[in-house]
Automatic annotation (TrEMBL):
It holds the Pfam family RPE65. Fe cation binds at H53. Keywords: Dioxygenase, Iron, Metal-binding, Oxidoreductase. Binds 1 Fe(2+) ion per subunit. GO terms for molecular function: carotenoid dioxygenase activity; metal ion binding. It comes from Pyrus ussuriensis x Pyrus communis. GO terms for cellular component: chloroplast stroma. One of its GO terms (biological process) is carotene catabolic process. Its cofactor is Fe(2+). Transmembrane segments: none annotated. InterPro entries: Carotenoid_Oase (IPR004294). This is Carotenoid 9-10-cleavage dioxygenase-like.
């Protein structure tokens, strides 16, 4: 993936930004055959963006098309907290805030054509995507991600995740939810949100031993309540829908690394 987001130590030393997005730059995705080399890469021009984490990639039809899912902020610019921000809608997504949504590219290997679209709307900012690892390289029905608390993240200057999301790639969004014109989801999205001022990290999907369905397993993560200073291991069961199972308290620890 060749996108107009650059890291430059020399630029930082000279008083510039370490991380900078070039608004005049281009973006492209390279597809290489399984046993190919650098000379066999086929490049596809896509809409300029910066993408951090890929959900999955697969071949939709042999030697004809491939599909990728990713997280695409339209522009790269940190947001600052304001009274207008809330947890349900983000009104300034297209004004340059760092707001990650699920996105899809479909690449036609024969014609070179590209079709692309958002898969999720502006209700939730999501990142750190994952799938059932046993289904890597095939067309996935489900994906998972951590939900960003945009207000808490802006106030603290660091990303905080206050929920988990399940993406149903083959199930369309409920059109009845669009009555207020706020939703733009192309696919169904389920969420499990933590209690207030609780944030998670390091979520993983654990397949069920002997399970056959792609979503047969558990989502497991650490969640910390900043009001009570209690950390918990949270376990969610996955099969058709998200179901809360249980939590275990864990001792809060501080790690110190000497360099």
């Amino acid at each position: 993936m060749d996108f107009p987001l650059t890291f430059d130590i020399n630029r930082l030393v000279n008083g510039g930004l370490l991380l900078e997005y070039n608004h005049e730059g281009y973006a492209r995705i390279g597809a290489m055959p399984r046993y190919g080399n650098a000379d066999s890469i086929h490049w596809f021009k896509v809409e300029p963006n910066c993408t951090f984490h890929i959900i999955s990639s697969f071949e939709d039809q042999p030697d004809m098309a491939s599909t990728q899912f990713g997280w695409l902020p339209r522009k790269f610019k940190p947001t600052s907290p304001s009274k207008e921000n809330d947890h349900d809608t983000i009104s300034s997504v297209d004004d340059g805030n760092l707001f990650s949504r699920a996105y899809e590219w479909r690449l036609n290997m024969q014609s070179g054509e590209v079709s692309e679209r958002y898969l999720t709307g502006k209700r939730f900012c999501m990142d750190f995507s994952m799938i059932n690892g046993a289904f890597s390289g095939v067309k996935n029905r489900y994906g998972y991600a951590q939900v960003v608390d945009s207000v808490a993240s802006s106030a603290s200057g660091m990303l905080k995740y206050n929920g988990l999301a399940k993406l149903h790639f083959e199930e369309p969004a409920d059109v009845s939810l669009r009555s207020e014109g706020q939703l733009e989801e192309a696919i169904k999205v389920e969420t499990h949100m933590f209690e207030e001022n609780s944030f998670c990290t390091g979520a993983s999907f654990v397949p069920k031993h002997g399970g056959f369905e792609e979503d047969d397993g558990w989502l497991i993560t650490f969640a910390h309540n900043e009001d009570t200073n209690i950390s918990q291991v949270t376990l969610l069961f996955q099969n058709s829908e998200i179901n809360f199972i249980t939590q275990w308290n864990v001792a809060a620890t501080i790690g110190i690394i000497k360099v």
